[in-house]
Amino acid sequence: MRPTHRYRSVLALVLCVALLAGSGMLLVPAGTPEANFVEYRMPGPQDAPIAIAAAVDGTIWFTMDHTDAIGRIRAAQLELLPISGPNIEPTGLGVGQDGSAWFTDMAGRAVARVTPSGGVSRFTIDTPIVRLGRLAMAPDGSAWFAEPTRSSITRLKDGEFTRYQVETSSGVPYGVAVSPDGTVWATLQDGNQLLRISPEGAVKNLEMPRPSTLPTDIAAGADESVWFIQFRANRIGRWRNGKFDDFEVAKERVGLSGLAVAPDGAVWFGMLRRSSLGRLRGGELKVFKLPRETARPYTIAIDPAGNVWYADITGYVGMLQARHTRQ
Fold first, then answer.
1. Considering the entire predicted model, what is its pTM?
2. Residue 280 forms beta bridges with which residues?
3. What is the per-residue pLDDT across 252-276, written as a single tens digit (0 to 9) for each?
């Protein structure tokens, strides 16, 4: 991966395993455990879904590596919308209240916006080289994203960029989440820290008690909890009420990737090396095996109906239906 060798260690693990095929929607036959899932196969042999996000109307947006399009699933139909340029590791994606999708566009040195009607606009970043991590939308409509090039967490609002600098000793910024009250959270990978930016703009670093965990994805819950992946430790961490907790997922490396918090407080994540989704609820872990042994679920989103969606870099976007998420 281009940004740094540590940044590379997480993303290259998942981007190099794609073995892609076919097109259309895959419905797994009823009567099997896999019938809990609906999957959409990408049309191109190199289409690799990367980031995924749900709109308030239930539309599912996703970015794809190696293509000049962004994807969406609306009314059970897969659509690819042209974006006038190639995607390179489009790891950041969020959806605004108006249904527009915002995503990181490293090839275009920009953050891009796609409206529901397919209109594309780009906001160019003022550096000759651009390295970008995750992206999240705030309640006020601003887009926040990790910008390792400038060691910052950056806000894009009304066409203007505002950078909140990270000390280089604190590590490379990667994951970004925004709480309902507008507080912004980020992971600093090498520094083993969380970064908090208050709605007033005050910045604070939080040192994790467990050393060298390589924090990656992060998500905010409705109860003021903040959840994050500890990639090297195979654990899901939580910051709440001023203290850290964590929950072990497995002894061995399972390749934790992607994180989303459901309205019921359940935390969902991908398990790349197990071809599975994981759910942490009430301190208990449950694993949901995906229909294919080659599946690599890289990112997670939860739609308003409670369905759990995943972007599978081997060429699929899939959904665990809401009625099965409560098992």
1. 0.90
2. 267, 285
3. 999 999 999 999 999 999 999 999 9
The partner residues of 257 in beta bridges, in order of sequence, read 270
**Tens digits of per-residue pLDDT, 265-318?**
999 999 999 999 999 999 999 999 999 999 999 999 999 999 999 999 999 999
